[in-house]
Design a protein that fits this description.
With 295 residues, the chain is α+β, with helices and mostly antiparallel strands. It contains nine helices and 13 strands. 38% of the residues lie in helices and 24% in strands. It starts with 17 loop residues before the first strand and ends in a 7-residue tail after the last strand.
Length: 295
């Protein structure tokens, strides 16, 4: 048997890994994961642990290949806690150690996802056509640059009044890796609509509203404090006031039905109104979340 280098039995060498580190009970424990898979697991995109973990072991130091002794794990996590449960706790609660390249790649992925979402939800108000992702990206760049310039000047008293109003509007400073793409896309849309670096509006929703014919001519009711009072107009008139453009309407089998286009911000109010006035017998169905015209 050759005599030479003896590698300790608790050492496992791994390469090209992402580390998740958890400090507990004055000890630091690590697990080795595949690159880019930890965030996918935490967001629910990836559910198979075999695709996340390089090895289902707990380490004191991954880079040195030093696994955690069973005695340390039992003392810190409890003698009855299995290694699989310990790995899960570290994966869920530990701090992800992200390198510069990974951080940049992650930020780029989130940025592209945000731009894609925004480009699919906003349109030119006149033509109702979508903008390209490049135009949306440029408009957001203008917004973030505009906010930096705005914050650097003192301005006149008149400008101060304008700046005070401007500060009330939603702002956009760029994408971050710590928030979901969906929430950041909503922030981006609010800022674009508020500042209009290019003419934009939310793409309208296409809905079908149905309710019993007998309720159409009843006076609409509105909430006043703790009581209910009759409001202006009939139920039908109030429903149509939510609809910007009627595509079709008519009566079928004792029900009145209207199909039309509604601003996304009015959807919740319309649904609550129909449900309340018809005592749950009316319906608001989404036929298209975002109606756009494409070339």
């Amino acid at each position: 048997m050759p005599v030479g280098i003896n590698q300790p039995s608790n050492q496992i060498r791994l390469t090209n890994v992402s580390l998740v580190r958890l400090k507990k009970g004055k000890k630091r424990f690590e697990i080795a994961c595949y690159k880019n898979k930890v965030l996918e697991y935490r967001s629910g995109i990836e559910t198979d642990l075999d695709n996340v973990l390089q090895i289902p072991s707990v380490f004191l130091n991954v880079s040195k290949g030093q696994t955690a002794p069973a005695a340390d794990l039992a003392k810190t996590f409890g003698a009855t806690t299995s290694t699989a449960d310990i790995v899960l706790e570290i994966l869920k609660k530990g701090e992800l150690q992200v390198g510069e390249k990974e951080r940049h790649a992650q930020l780029e992925r989130v940025h592209n996802e945000v731009i894609d979402i925004v480009a699919g939800k906003l349109v030119d108000p006149k033509s109702k056509r979508v903008y390209t992702v490049g135009m949306i990206a440029k408009a957001l760049e203008q917004l973030s640059g505009h906010r930096q310039e705005e914050g650097s000047g003192a301005g006149t008293p008149e400008e101060g009044v304008g700046n005070a109003k401007a500060k009330e509007r939603p702002t956009w400073t760029g994408v971050v890796a710590t928030k979901s793409a969906k929430s950041q896309a909503l922030d981006a849309m609010r800022a674009l609509i508020a500042w209009q670096p290019i003419p934009v509006a939310r793409a309208r929703m296409r809905l079908r509203v149905s309710c019993p014919v007998g309720t159409l001519k009843q006076p609409a009711k509105v909430m006043r404090g703790n009581g209910v009072e009759e409001g202006k107009g009939t139920v039908k008139e109030r429903i149509l006031s939510y609809v910007e453009e009627v595509e079709s309407q008519g009566e079928v089998g004792g029900e009145w039905e209207v199909v039309g286009f509604v601003e996304p911000g009015a959807f919740k109010g319309l649904g609550e109104f129909v449900g309340g006035e018809t005592k749950g017998r009316g319906r608001v169905e989404v036929l298209d979340m975002a109606v756009v015209h494409e070339d």
